[in-house]
Amino acid sequence: MALSSVAVAVFAQQRPPIPAESVVLAPPYADYADFVLASPIVADVSIRSVTRLKGPDAVGLSSGEARLYVEADVLALIRGAAPLPPRIAYVVDVPVDSRGRLPRLRKARMLLFARPVPHNPALIQLVRPDAQRDWTPGADALARRITQEVLATDAPPEVTGIGNAFHVAGDLPGAGETQIFLSTADGRPVSISIQRQPGEQPRWSVALSEIVDESAVPPARDTLLWYRLACALPAALPDSSLASVDEEAAKIAREDYRFVIRSLGPCTRSVRP
Predict the structure, then answer these.
(1) What is the DSSP code (8-state) at residue 242?
(2) What is the pLDDT of residue 23?
(3) Can you tell me the distance from the alpha carbon of 4 to that of 171, in angstroms, rounded to the nearest whole number?
(4) What is the spatial distance between Cα 39 and Cα 80, in angstroms, rounded to a whole number?
(5) Residue 174 and residue 184: Cα distance in Å, rounded?
(6) Residue 270's pLDDT is what?
């Protein structure tokens, strides 16, 4: 089977399509975090050639799109367990204009978020139909920064839900502490602590171990820890987390949780994950 036919067969497994209007030059942090976390390969490439695929090779193609077999020169491997060959190939669907003309892609510089194809090192598969992104200095820097965060030995784990939560009143009226324990994909402990003092704004922090650091501060926006929380936590504390807490303590715990969510801010995405 020719390399282009193999690429089409691999690509057919990754649909459904993404609307053309979702492709933007500079997606928010959450967009690139989604891509990097899903991608064993992140590469900076220059497109050498583009071949439009038709007939059986374009089955399932959406209206207003064209399917392309792309060959690209690798300029830099940002993430990868093994080196890539100097030239790689992949299949991608792109929007066409009202006359059916292709965008000008030859010699275009792109960031690719992909996975390897077994037994064929010259072929990759995009992790999503929109995982070919226009290269810009800012996009390149963001992809590299997130890759470093993801591969760090102390990278925060994936948050999968909320466990138990409780509130303990302090010695003074209005004082107290709420602790919220999170569940994670790999079982590592993550908890949120909210400290209240009379007449002061609540303070909160995150612990990535069994030990709570009293001097810790909330995670900075557009960091991997911020993403793990802002993009995974529900809008409200679930009732199941407060099953063993009395009504007054549960009310304060819910208020403290809402404070944390407001402090984190929205997990803004420009494209669908």
Answers:
(1) G
(2) 36
(3) 71
(4) 9
(5) 31
(6) 84
- Successive 10-residue mean pLDDT values, the chain, 273 residues: 55 45 58 97 98 92 93 98 96 91 94 96 95 95 97 96 94 91 96 93 92 79 97 96 92 96 94 65
**Which residues have C-beta within 8 Å of that of residue 33, sequence separation ≥ 6?**
146, 224, 227, 231
CA distance 226 to 1: 46
Sign of CA dihedral 52, 2, 35, 137: negative
Phi, psi angles (nearest 5°) of residue 191: -140, 155
In the block, which residue shows the tokens 């949120």?
192
Tokens found for residue 9 = 């067969």
Contact 202, 208 (CB under 8 A): no
CB-neighbour burial class of residue 146 (10 A; exposed 0-12, middle 13-18, buried 19+): buried
Nearest CA among 268, 270, 250 for reference residue 258: 250
The whole-number pLDDT of residue 8 equals 54
